[in-house]
Amino acid sequence: MKQRTAFLTLLLTLAFVASPFFTEPFSGFRADQLPIPQIDPPVQPEGYAFAIWGLIYAWLVVSAVYGAWARVDAADWHDARIPLNVSLAVGVPWLAIANVSAIAATVAIVVMAIGAIMALARAPYDDRWLFQAPVGLYAGWLTAASFVSIATTAAGYGIGFDAVIWALVGIAGAFVVATIVLLRRPNALGYRLAVVWALVGIVVANGMTNIIVTLAAALGIALLLLPLTRKASRQYSS
What we know:
The chain is mostly helical. The protein is about 70% helix and about 0% strand. The protein has helices spanning about 1-20, 50-70, 75-90, 95-100, 100-120, 130-155, 165-185, 190-205, 210-235. Helix 1 packs antiparallel against helix 2 (about 50-70), helix 2 crosses helix 6 and helix 7 (about 165-185) packs antiparallel against helix 8. The longest helix is centred in the last third of the chain and has 27 residues, at about 210-235. It is globular.
């Protein structure tokens, strides 16, 4: 069972990494996918931020190859692989889904995020840089991306608020989830930095145009980085 799960993780990871080559590019929901078109929604990070996928893809492949080679029977890896496989399985067709339906894509990316977060919660304490780090990076970006999708879709359907208020809701939601995850795994540096990276992208995208969104994202960045600055300060003073 453990061997099959390990090789399934490798297969799904490779399929996930290859999926962009078999689907149309996706850079946000098209105007015709939402009743109220969301062109450059304020909750969406600046385009450069999505380059993080290159690192996520590469590190997940390294993790999956190493796991299938050296940790094929490891019980702690096995427990974490199960929810990771669910996330990856949904992730393989995600780009194709996103090009068709904003609602379906939002549901799918939330499922991906939940699976990735569960995998991070179960991640082995050994081999930190070969499992926890790449999965944390993946889960952190998906945490932010899921709230981007929720906020964009909700604004696009005119649910309750306008795009700016939904951007604030999305930033707050991502921060709350990230805080909960980091209370369980405070040393999950990859997760923390991926969420911060997304928030920095939101700051860059909004600048002075939507100052309230910029300030909310900047506050989230400061609060997420505060534990690292405190730790560095203690180490320096000792």
